[in-house]
Task: structure prediction
Amino acid sequence: MKPLEKWDNGKDLVLAGDVAGVVAPSSGEGIYYAMIGGQEAALATHSCLLSGNSKDLQLARKRFMSEHKTVFRVLEAMQNAY
Ligand SMILES: Cc1cc2nc3c(=O)[nH]c(=O)nc-3n(C[C@H](O)[C@H](O)[C@H](O)COP(=O)(O)OP(=O)(O)OC[C@H]3O[C@@H](n4cnc5c(N)ncnc54)[C@H](O)[C@@H]3O)c2cc1C
Result:
């Protein structure tokens, strides 16, 4: 219930969904975040294949967190409080 600091291995692997830690604290919801994360992982993989630059795999986490980090922070604070 906490997004991992890294979702890729800097080479040829990128995570999405539960295994990337994107299950919402407090509610335990993870289906939506797994689907969005899968989409972002696919886009990042596509970029990586086009550019040949494995750093593009980082885009999955970067793009996901820019959209959803506030929700995870707030729900984590709520979970910690109770
Ligand atoms: C009891 C329960 C209730 C939940 N209720 C909700 C809810 O109401 N709403 C909600 O949003 N979320 C809910 N969740 C969370 C949600 O189910 C998960 O966050 C979501 O399914 C994560 O999707 P995923 O694709 O990341 O992982 P998963 O759905 O776990 O998919 C991973 C898949 O990989 C397969 N796999 C594992 N190892 C290997 C391997 N070596 N080779 C090949 N395949 C492999 C597994 O069999 C599995 O099918 C609930 C979870 C549980 C346990």
Residues 17-18, 23, 28-32, 34 surround flavin-adenine dinucleotide (CB under 6 Å). Residues 1-71 form one domain. The mean pLDDT is 96. The first helix runs from residue 31 to 51.
